[in-house]
Amino acid sequence: MLPPTVPLEPLFVDQARELEEFDSILRSLAAGVRRHVALLGLRRIGKTMLLDEVRHCHATSAIAYLALDEVVSSPEDFARALMAETMRAAGIATGRAFDVGAGGKAFRETATALHPDLNSGIDHLLSLMSEGSSYGTLLAAVMRFPGEVSRVLDLPLLVMLDEFQEIVRLKAFPKTDNLMGAVRAALDRRGKVAFVVAGSRVSVMRNLIADSESPLFTRFEQLELGPFASDGTNELVTRIWSETGADYEPDASVRLHELTGGWPFYAHAVASRAGQIARASTGKVASDTVDLAFQHEIIGRVANIGQNCRYLLESALRTDANGMRNTLEAVLRQVARWQPISRASVERRLRRHHAHTRIHGAINALVDADFLRETGGLLEMVDPVFALWLVVEPERRDPEAVLSNSKALRRMLDWYEAQHAQDRQETGLLFERRVENLARQFRGQTVAGTLFGVEYDVRLPVVSSVGKARVDDPHGQYGDRPDTYEVDIVITGERPEDYWAIEAKHRRGAITQAMVERFLKNAYAISKAKHLTFGRLWVVAPRGIRPDALDLARREGVLVSRLRQLERIEGLLATDVAPMPPSDGAQ
Ligand SMILES: Nc1ncnc2c1ncn2[C@@H]1O[C@H](COP(=O)(O)OP(=O)(O)OP(=O)(O)O)[C@@H](O)[C@H]1O
Ligand SMILES: [Mg+2]
Q1: Which terminus of the chain faces fewer neighbouring Cβ atoms within 10 Å, N or C?
Q2: Domain range annotation of the chain
Q3: Which residue of 6, 17, 48 sits with most ligand 1 atoms within 8 Å of its CB, as the best mutation to test the pocket?
Q4: Is the distance from the beta carbon of residue 201 to the nearest atom of ligand 1 less than 6 Å?
């Protein structure tokens, strides 16, 4: 018999930097300066726990929290939830615990108790709700409500909107075209209301807040949550083990970090399972205990990781827009098994059962939903543990047999380790972010060409927006066959020379010639499709670049920076106030 699922006792560790950030946001707010934050992080990375902890640490501040996925089934639902939660938060901060309820009467009573001046606003909102005539007006009005409460009570108010990307579901209702306009208006309103938006669909969130026509993104500071570093994992697992009375060897925690990549949920689940196994046997958690616990969690029928992976698979297949469920699943399995794998190879492996356009559509959908990551034309799974779970499907059919077969277990772990030996700390996504953040600081400064691998000074663009660009080319218009082209980071600006295409690779090895060729093709297709010319192409190569690739880059006038050079540019711009004079000592 397999042991039962281990209950995961909630506990909060690490994230000191993020908590400090929130302390500082609340301090600024109290001083009348509002800063909005976008908290970005993949599924189960700890966004909600962090927001909970912030609320816990600031128990007497006015902090409203809504999980949008639970309140956007209709504009009325959303309005009621935002009103009730805002008043509840205001009540707490002014020393009164309200049970706001959901009815109009309760709303009016609470508003009166808070401040009679709030009544007319409440009446207006309630009448908009009962009319049901213009949802756009209702949403705009309710988005103003926190500002109204804050103004009337002269109260700093932090509004947390978790799973923010779900807000677009409200657009399914009539006359809600200007939903994002209403959000923007609330963000821009003067006063003491700051917004935190959080979401696990990182790419969707980015697109939402970087919507190019009306850039919301300049209004948000972005706070990115990644997996724990080894000390974070260590803190989590040693807390779990000592609280459950299990003894442990130091390398057990190191091993656990290796296997889980520091993903908080996986670390939590494996540590709890290791504690359970230890208690039932030697009483001590060793490195081997961690291996066994990991395997139980991946293969076992009743396991937290198994359940989570089933949920992930379900979410991945729900991205289904055009009845592509089977194709989506087939693509996921191929990439999990063969990663890093090119689009063309995925297509070759699947073309017997799936049409070309479907395969590309499915890959795009999975990239958009952050299940896959594409760098230099190669696809990888973003979540290493989910990838393993997909691959061991045959083993999961008869868990007991496999778990008692130490050879089979060894094989599975060897395979996994070979695949994920590197690139644990900084995922490609985070690296891309880092370069993106740097690009946002480009304001026409002139810097020494050596930082970009060229002999002349380089004038940085004056940036008006930064984001990803992708072009689907189902008819082979831009190449010799149908393809999808993508550039990681595109800078746009006022003048033609301000347009830059940037490839920020964080891969296992050095940049190859094929990758540079691919980048050139991508940039070409995007410039054609979007009717623009790139002033510069720039490759950031943290793991170096092969000589033939560098030759090609030089011939094509592509700028190339390695990690050291990137760091120097970051250093320069961090201290930069005025544009630097050319060749100012920076070698
Ligand atoms: N700081 C932390 N300390 C301890 N455990 C954590 C921490 N952050 C996350 N975890 C673990 O990861 C799990 C997922 O965290 P949480 O629900 O906050 O993630 P999320 O990013 O909000 O995920 P989702 O996208 O699914 O909403 C927690 O239940 C816990 O097991
Ligand atoms: Mg969450």
Answers
A1: N
A2: 16-224, 230-299+395-420, 307-391, 428-575
A3: 48
A4: no
DSSP state letters, 146-202: HHHHHHHHT--EEEEEETGGGGGGGGGSTT-TTHHHHHHHHHHSSSSEEEEEEES-H
9 alpha carbon, closest ligand:
1
User: What number does the ligand 1 atom closest to the CA of 200 have?
Assistant: 25
Return the CATH number of the domain spanning residue range 230-299+395-420: 1.10.8
Domain 307-391 has CATH 1.10.10.10: yes
CATH class of 428-575: alpha beta
In terms of DSSP bridges, do strands 193-199 and 157-162 run parallel, antiparallel, or are they unpaired?
Answer: parallel
Residue of minimum CA distance from atom 16 in ligand 1: 46
**H-run or E-run covering 111:** helix 104-114
> Could you tell me if the CB of 9 is within 6 A of ligand 1?
no
Amino acid at 503: E
Atom 18 in ligand 1: which residue has the minimum CA distance? 46
483, 488, 491, 497 alpha-carbon torsion, rounded to 10°: -60
The best mutation among 268, 273, 310, 314 to test binding of ligand 1, ranked by most ligand atoms within 8 Å of the C-beta, falls on: 268
Which ligand is the nearest neighbour of the Cα of 43? 1
> Along the 587 residues of the chain, how does pLDDT read in single tens digits?
567 778 888 889 988 889 999 999 999 999 988 899 989 888 899 999 999 999 999 999 999 999 999 999 999 999 999 999 999 999 999 988 878 777 788 899 999 999 999 999 999 999 998 887 789 999 999 999 999 999 999 999 999 999 998 998 998 888 888 888 888 889 888 889 999 999 888 777 777 776 545 555 457 888 888 888 888 999 999 999 998 888 899 899 999 999 998 999 999 999 999 999 999 998 899 999 999 999 999 999 889 999 999 999 998 998 666 678 999 999 999 999 988 888 989 999 999 999 999 999 999 999 988 899 887 678 999 999 999 999 999 899 988 888 888 888 888 888 888 777 545 444 566 678 788 889 988 999 999 999 999 999 999 999 988 888 888 888 888 988 888 888 989 999 989 899 999 998 766 567 888 889 999 999 999 999 989 999 999 999 988 888 899 999 999 999 999 988 998 898 888 764 443 333 333 33
Distance from C-alpha of 393 to C-alpha of 548, rounded to nearest angstrom: 41
Report, at the CATH architecture level, how domain 16-224 is classified. Answer: 3-Layer(aba) Sandwich (3.40)
Q: Whose CA is nearest to atom 4 of ligand 1?
A: 12
Q: Which residue lies with its CA nearest to atom 8 of ligand 1?
A: 46
What CA–CA distance (Å, rounded) separates 527 from 539? Answer: 17
Instruction: Check if 416 has its Cβ closer than 6 Å to any atom of ligand 1.
Output: no
Shortest-distance atom of ligand 1 to CA 15 = 1
> For residue 41, which atom of ligand 1 is closest to its CA?
21
| 268 Cβ inside 6 Å of ligand 1 | yes
Closest CA to 488 of 441, 551, 541, 544: 541
Note if the pTM is more than 0.85. Answer: no
Backbone angles phi, psi at 473, to 5 degrees: -130, 75
Closest-approaching ligand to the CA atom of 51: 1
- Dist. CA 437–CA 226, nearest whole Å: 16
